[in-house]
Model the fold of this input.
Amino acid sequence: MSAVLVEPSLTDDERRARLYAGDIVSYPPVEGFRALCDHGWSMVCDAFGSIDPRTAQFELPVEQFVDIISPLKTKFTHDAKSKQLITALLDEVGCDVDATYFDLPRLRIVTHGGYLTAGVGYAYKSHRDTWYACPPSQINWWGPITEINERCGLAFHPRYFDRAVPNSSEAFDAYRWNADGRKNAAQFITSDSRPHPHVTDSVELDWQVIVGRPASFLMFSAQQLHATVPNDSGTTRYSVDFRTAHRGDVEAHRGAELVDSLSTGTTLRDFIRASDYERLPDDVVAGYETGDADGVLIFEPDAPS
Done:
């Protein structure tokens, strides 16, 4: 049985073990995550100017909204300060910054009422991150920047953590995604034909929606089956997330048990060491290579995530 652990007194090794077993960890706002959220929100407000970002969708045609958020998301992801703030956060919550690697953070923007559910505003269906060719030792960090409620939060399906479900992950390759899917995200406005992995057949999913204050955050395994709650809260939801992997766990192939992932490639090349931003060595990544590596191995920073 999985549990939600609220501000647990665990070492990082103990915490990762609990996450790999299916638990979810919840933290109230801490200095480091609040700083990351404040940094993101400052960028959001600058991008929208005099318009309130939470209600901008009601004032702008969707094409203009996309023209604003597409470069905004890219700027936040690749900003040097974003990286520095993640390193500080990891150190604050007990991670070894010399052994912990992270991928670049994402600014997520989920609009109300289906105004934008594709491309840079994609609303994620029920999925595991492992279906996106992520390693089994990956830990996801997610938290809201603005106020949220149960009508725009994050939903989990914990009953299926270690149970296979029918899915479309066989169509996903990490390197082809780098070449096309991520690069062309802003082109999709009214529909999204990219191969986002998702549950394919009718499955009776349990919905556990978790809501927290702005700058609170969750940690959970990439194996968790989860989804974006369809937003009908009346405002646009802004959140930030990133992912980590511990080098010792990567090298030892520790992590959650993968029960149904058929994706190819690996996202491990995206991860950088928290202390100096060095990438994992090729010989370490090679242990996770699947498929024929046809595409872009590392995503270029000139396109939205």
